[in-house]
Amino acid sequence: MRLNATLTAVTERIITRSAKTRTAYLERMRAAKSQGPARAHLSCSGQAHAYAATGQDQSKLATESAGHLGIVTAYNDMLSAHQPFETYPAAIKEAVREIGGTAQVAGGVPAMCDGITQGEAGMELSLFSRDAIAMATGVALSHNVFDATVYLGVCDKIVPGLVIGAQVFGHLPAVFLSAGPMTSGISNDDKAKVRQKFAAGEIGRDELLKSEMAAYHGPGTCTFYGTANTNQMLMEFMGLHLPGSSFVNPGTELRDALTREGGKRALTLSALGNHYTPVCDILDEKAYVNGIVGLMATGGSTNLLIHLIAMARAGGIILDWQDFADLSDIVPLLARVYPNGLADVNHFHAAGGLGFMIGELLNAGFLHDDTKTVAGEGLDAYTHEPFLDGGALTWRKGSSENLNDKILRPASDPFQETGGLSRLTGNLGTGVMKISAVAPEHRVVEAPARVFHDQDEAKAAFKAGELDKGDVVIVVRFQGPKANGMPELHSMTPFLGIMQGRGQKVALVTDGRMSGASGKIPSAIHVVPEALDGGPIAKIRDGDMLRVNAETGELEVLEEGFLAREAVVADLSAYQYGTGREMFALFRNSVTSADTGATVFGD
């Protein structure tokens, strides 16, 4: 199938824009590859330190040139998505010994949960944790003793941080391993309804907790299609997962087999063999375009509009929001997974999942098939599914038909002709909106503004009955990366849903983030310039008429002389201390804007 013309044009634009920085990056990777791992050149004392605790592998490391695998893990047993990683290193070590290799845990990286910190001070560390994870990855691999790497991570900032770190060591092969989603509990729709009842004061906290425990009930990723599961999708579309492995549940024989195979596969891609495939060759401009296509076709998390830009820049590739907007205009929406539908990721996987989607997008000319992956050349391998045949792991061609058209559709009959995200511009600046779950009748809101400086103020106004009358655009500002680390504002979702449900036209405008689970409320988020930089959002007053139009991409204040006003200055001292925030002052002072990745690794 001939590639879509817009896809080709966007890709060429990215290649041209990135030529200088990409060339410099690849030259650094070639130089690192030529130097090779340092373990053979370490002093005797250095080698003794490196091998002292390796037990049965000690003599092999000291005397042989068998491949050595570095494991970077985000394991902790407080996060359900990362708890399964506890057993992965031992399984990987055993597996690579079968092919003559060795492995060590190179280091651990922090992993925090946005679900736990929603509405709490800790959320202000969340976005910055991505760059801290990248730094921790650098520390883990700085000993320079490995031929290849595997990365154990799932959730919101963890995978992007690991990808940034992996690209800094891009001369090494890298395989990313998932833990998979927890088995399905109560439906996400039922969970959301209970949250709304609690926000409305109709039920008590005991009933809310009972509902939440029934939804989040075991090891594995949360089952809604938020940032964590969007990350897993990306790792397949971009060729860093084994095919079909993203949504296999933890604790199953198939999951264990995929873990073992991931370790082996990483070593077979090292420079010691005949199939050298470093991660710098996999994550090229076409791979990132494929990732954006996957984001649009699945209606994925808005957080990736920030993360993908930061990830790409680590490999010398420069993306911008216009690239996302142009691809969203042509990529059809093929999936309905909560919050964009009622199904969870287990239902999505059973209905045909990523294999079906990749096949459809390839056949329709919406994906580059000439990319390198950990499974070999091209994306066709990712239309296959893993199975156990007599205990041995194998892959078979996946279904060419979707098994539930309420969850998955072919490219010829999509849920909508365009992707799940929209770019908004106007005299308020530039923002983005996830529209895949926003009903068409809610995509245009023209209403007076009600302005707040944090989400707690907005929630208090709702509880006091101040937001009961008429249509309204809720503006929550001073929530950008420089102001307070750009926390998600998902704890506002229940009361915004109540307002919409009782017939009010309501929209959110913010320089902060919403959760990857943001859904039915039209939300213009990531607005730049942010309020702390004196952006137009800092000039809005209560009662100003605003237009938020996802259909035409408008983000406007309809008041004459609006831009001539002085920007409001806020007291941000409450954001500077407590729950570790004081340690991240350097990040707040040096972070780039949201549209350039909100990263401390600036140009």
From TrEMBL:
UniProt domain Dihydroxy-acid/6-phosphogluconate dehydratase C-terminal: residue ranges: 406-598
Pfam assignment, any one: ILV_EDD_C
GO CC annotations, alphabetized: cytosol
Its EC number(s): 4.2.1.12
The protein's name in its UniProt record: Phosphogluconate dehydratase
Enzyme class, spelled out: lyase
Entry's family note: Belongs to the IlvD/Edd family.
